[in-house]
Amino acid sequence: MAQSNDYVMERKPKEKKPETPSKIKVSNWRQFKAIIRKDIVMEMRTKEMITSMGLYALLVLVIYYIALSQAGQGFDFTRIAAGLLFLAIIFTSLLGLNRSLVHEQDQGCLEALLLAPIDRPIIFLGKAVGNFIFLCIVEVFIVPIFYFLFLGGGALAQSGPWWMLVVAILVGSVGIAGAGTLMATMSVNTRGKDFILAVMFVPVMFPLLLIIVTAMTSVIVANPGYVASFWQQIAGAVVFDVVMVGVGYVLYDFVLGA
Amino acid sequence: MGKQIKIAITLVIVGGLLTTAAFLMAFYTAEVQTFGFATLNKAVDTVYPLAPANMQPTDGSINYQRPGFAQKIFYFHVPIAEASFLVFTIAGIFAVLFLRKRRKSYDTKSRIAMETALIFVIATMLTGDIWTRASWGVWWEWEPRLTTYLIMMLLMIAYFVLRNSIEDEERRATYSAVFAIVAWIDAPISFFITRLIPSTHPIVFKSGMAPSILIPFIIAQVGMLMIGYAIFVLRVGEEDLRTRLDISKEALEG
């Protein structure tokens, strides 16, 4: 093929949506639900993602004990608890995100989704919400285990209400699922796969993690005036989430079209 | 194309002369700031004396006197850092243009702008590190500006790692454009964070500057931008020649 210096890369022609008669037109909401249901059904049959993520997270927690076993008596664990928890969550989610997109790729499901008359942003939202649900399920397991292993015995007696911690974890998980889905879709098509995902995902997530961990630590330590600073941090994290999900929503079309 | 290259070469020379002039002015004509303070949250291993008792903050942190000489790096560090933000933004703009128009040249320009930005980022890190050691007594401090800037550097490195791991040309161009846009989100965060969160990093332009400081600063800034633009244009020209060479090779062989 002769190449010139500058040329327009042919974009595969966008499949024209077939003109469906209006009575069988499927609404966006139903398409969205179908994608999520597909993911959940597949997970219920294989149980692969939940078990691997859960086991991996548990192993990370066990390794934490090695680091903490030499910390000594005067060590204030509450100040690093939120950071350690999110460290486990971020590595676990890397594993899960990669899995969820590798499945799609291996079994040709992504192509099938592209052939179906579904808007690409709907696919993004479906996959992202699916990933969010799985991440939440894993968190339901590992957060209590983390609490029992490291924070039992009244370590949290002084801290603020627990639902604030739940809010922080949920806001963090939305960002992880949104940006992670976009980047995992890119990384499954590269040579490095999970390595590339880690290289892209960790720096992009860094500001969000920093904000969330700061917010959670302020609740755990509960210095005077922590409520106001907590909501300030959460507001910043929500802005980051909205930007990331918005960028994913807009750019997913290009990623799938390539 | 040849004319543009000539302009670029001229700009390299002029930019070099301007930054050299700013260098000399910084040492000879700029007002000397003999006294400055650095506040750190912990006692650090530093050769600099403690600030006088009436200048010590009450919140338990410690003020050190810093030598006025270290301030001279301001005339290089700040222009390079601002150029790095600007060139990074240009890389983002070309990425958006590529996604809209899908021309190969936009992809090439976005990549080259990213390369140029990475050079400036590394130069900023090096000059900043020298200053941090001289002024704060440490090589690295995890404070908001330094942290977000380090993340920006990691994002740029990730951009090239991503590019190198994709074979298909169209897919490589699209993915790297998408990632350039995602990565660019960190630039405004890093730029404005010192204004939002209390930070040890000094904020320039918050208070006015004396003309003897402002003039060499502006000269250095203009010089750096010229050098940045020239690197960009020369690299685009080189890339262009390479493609033409490949095409001729292919034609001869085939």
Question: How would you describe what is shown here?
Answer:
The complex is a heterodimer of chains A (258) and B (254). Chain A has helices at residues 28-46, 48-68, 78-106, 109-115, 120-151, 162-187, 194-221, 226-257. Chain A has 258 residues and is mainly alpha-helical. Chain A is elongated and about 65 Å long. Chain A starts with 27 loop residues before the first helix and ends with a helix. With 254 residues, chain B is mainly α. Chain B has 7 helices and 2 strands; from the N terminus they run H-E-E-H-H-H-H-H-H. Chain B has a two-stranded antiparallel sheet with strand order 1-2. In chain B, helix 2 (74-101) packs antiparallel against helix 3, helix 3 (104-136) packs antiparallel against helix 7 (211-253) and helix 4 (144-164) runs antiparallel to helix 6. Classes of the chains: A mainly alpha (258), B mainly alpha (254). The interface between A and B is large, with 35 and 40 residues.
Average predicted confidence as pLDDT of chain B: 83
The chain pair forming the largest interface, with residue counts per chain, is: A-B, 35 and 40 residues
- Residue share in helices of chain A? over 70%
Helix count of chain A, per DSSP? 8
Largest pleated sheet of chain A: none
Radius of gyration of chain B: 21 Å
Alpha-carbon Rg of chain A, integer: 21 Å
Give the SSE string of chain A.
Answer: HHHHHHHH
Task: Give the helices and strands, then pairings.
The complex is a heterodimer of chains A (258) and B (254).
Chain A: H1 28-46, H2 48-68, H3 78-106, H4 109-115, H5 120-151, H6 162-187, H7 194-221, H8 226-257
Helix pairs in contact in A: 1-5, 2-3, 2-5, 3-5, 3-6, 3-7, 5-6, 5-8, 6-7, 6-8, 7-8
Chain B: H1 2-28, E1 35-40, E2 62-67, H2 74-101, H3 104-136, H4 144-164, H5 169-184, H6 186-196, H7 211-253
Antiparallel strand pairs in B: 1-2
Helix pairs in contact in B: 1-7, 2-3, 2-5, 2-7, 3-4, 3-5, 3-7, 4-5, 4-6
